[in-house]
Amino acid sequence: MTTAPRAFAPAPAPGPDLTGFLTEYRKVSRSFYDGVLTESELARWRARQLTTVLHHVTDRSPFYRCHLAGVDIDGVTPDDLTALPFTTKDDLRREMHDVLSGPVAEASVYYETNGTTGTATPCPRGPKDIATSNAAVEESWRRLFRAHFGDRMPVVGLMGPSELYAFGDVFTAVTASLGACHVKIWPESPRVGFRKALRLIEELGVEVVVCAPALCLSLAKAALHYGYDLERLPVKLFLVLGEICTPQFAANVSTVWPRAVVRLALYGSQEALCIATGADTGRLHLSVPNYLAEVVDPDSGRVLGDTGEGELVLTMLVDGIKPLIRYRTGDLVRITPASPGAPLPGPEIEVVGRIADRITLGRARLYPGQLEAAILDGVRGCLGYQVVVERASGGGDEITVRMDLLPAVADPDATADAVVRRLRALTGASARAVVDTALDPVTHTGSFVSWKAARVLDLRTDPDRAAVTARQVAHRYAITT
Predict the structure, then answer these.
(1) 176: CB partners within 8 A, 6+ apart
(2) Is the pLDDT of residue 347 over 70?
(3) CATH number at residue 364
(4) Which end of the chain, C or N, has fewer beta carbons within 10 A?
(5) d(Cα 120, Cα 91) in Å, to the nearest integer?
(6) Is the pLDDT of residue 192 over 50?
């Protein structure tokens, strides 16, 4: 669609409006995390905030003023959002600043998406956005740190992707609020690198590393290259985000780093902020005060409910600088009620992978999580892997899994044989696994482009845009320079 020329409504009066909102929000949030927020109180909050946000975006966003034209927004309820059209990534890329509910000057800080697979889109955040999104992270980390370190605070190493991402600012603010020391040691920065990052981890006694899952293994590979003993480095807890992290991947990391465990830190995005936060069970919990979540069929868009498996659709409940309405995230998730006695409240979300990362292998069409689980189930000491797919000479698919295993792995042949058996059973295709200590550097790019671009080399077709981009940036992730 084409919107009218950008025309933002006058800014709301500062001061009391923000103060009053944050006072009420903190009351609702505190009650939610303390487990005393009643269903009726939550329902009132969600209904009021939904109406507030819908008026906010139709008054102040040029895109939504047109996109929601003709909708009786006062008649829309949290239980039925189907009168509202979806918002897609294509909408965000096409409309750019017109999606914002106010000019950038009203924001506190400007970020944007990385633009590796499409146009980088603006993702500014205002005071309401920052306070409400960070509140969920702070609550998660407070409980995680208490579980692992008791009453003391660890030194936290932040390993983020780029300065235009919210990563550094969010976790700087959260560690400051908790009273923990943090250090920004981004090994992918040319001014830091893996060698300096490892020196700082050792010298500063960094016990918590916040990073993408792939970086857990890249950091271990670099440590071995530079002569470090992984059992003597102080890291005890990896808090991971930014890409899928299956239980099998997390279990493998703990065999590579003998003193460390892996926990999901959060699930979110530049556009949608902090959607869910991690508990010490390894599960993610929806930030309920901030979102209405729907599960839809990824192909038809048919609503499946607020639990089950499908594409995650979000409606944001905070009237900040860029609230999104029925935003199709492109992520396949499983949403289930919180387990009894869970350390955090709210429905549990398992991220299976990007819809666009589905891949057909043999007779199966797999999501990233399914493929990774089959490869790493029961595997120990794996520093990385890559799946190479090509056409077999007699027809059909031929799968080769290249695995970088620690020298201490007792029986690498048995590990490879088990991987082959699982893949053959899952796909029906020809498969083999080989040990390769010199994996393709693209595997270290992780989520910077996409899981599939980093982990799967599909020789059956020409490389797509994501695969080309991952190849172009792979040199930034070199662990030996």
Answers:
(1) 182
(2) yes
(3) 3.30.300.30
(4) C
(5) 12
(6) yes
In-domain check, residue 220: yes
| Mean pLDDT of all residues in 370-389 | 94
Number of C-alpha atoms within 13 angstroms, CB side, residue 289? 26
pLDDT band at 9 (very low <50, low <70, confident <90, very high): very low
Q: Which amino acid is at 437?
A: T
Region of 28 on the Ramachandran plot (φ > 0 left; ψ -120 to 50 alpha; else beta):
alpha
Same domain, 25 and 148: no
Assigned domain for 85 exists:
yes
475 alpha carbon, distance to own chain's centre: 23
Number of independent structural domains in the chain:
3
Q: d(Cα 137, Cα 152) in Å, to the nearest integer?
A: 18
CATH assignment at residue 137 = 3.40.50.12780
The pair of structure tokens assigned to 130 is: 């920052």
Q: How many Cβ atoms from other residues are within 10 Å of residue 276's Cβ?
A: 30
Whether residues 95 and 164 fall in one domain: no
Same domain, 309 and 249: no
Listed residue (267, 283, 263) closest to 339, CA to CA: 283
Residue 81 and residue 176 in one domain: no
The number of residues in the chain equals: 481
How far CA 437 is from CA of 124, 221, 441, 445, 478, in Å, comes to 42, 10, 11, 17, 14
Contacts (Cβ under 8 Å, ≥6 apart) of 475: 441
338 with 462, same domain: the answer is no
Angstrom distance (rounded) from CA 222 to CA 218: 6
* Token pair 């989520």 in the structure block, residue: 447
Q: How far apart are CA 477 and CA 481, in angstroms?
A: 9
Domain span at 260: 130-264
pTM of the predicted model as reported, rounded to 2 decimal places = 0.91
- 205 and 254 assigned to the same domain: yes
Read off the DSSP letter of residue 337.
Answer: P
Cα Rg of the chain (Å, integer): 23
- Rounded CA separation 87/163 (Å): 27
The predicted-structure confidence for 131-163, as pLDDT tens digits, reads as follows 999 999 999 999 999 999 999 999 999 997 666
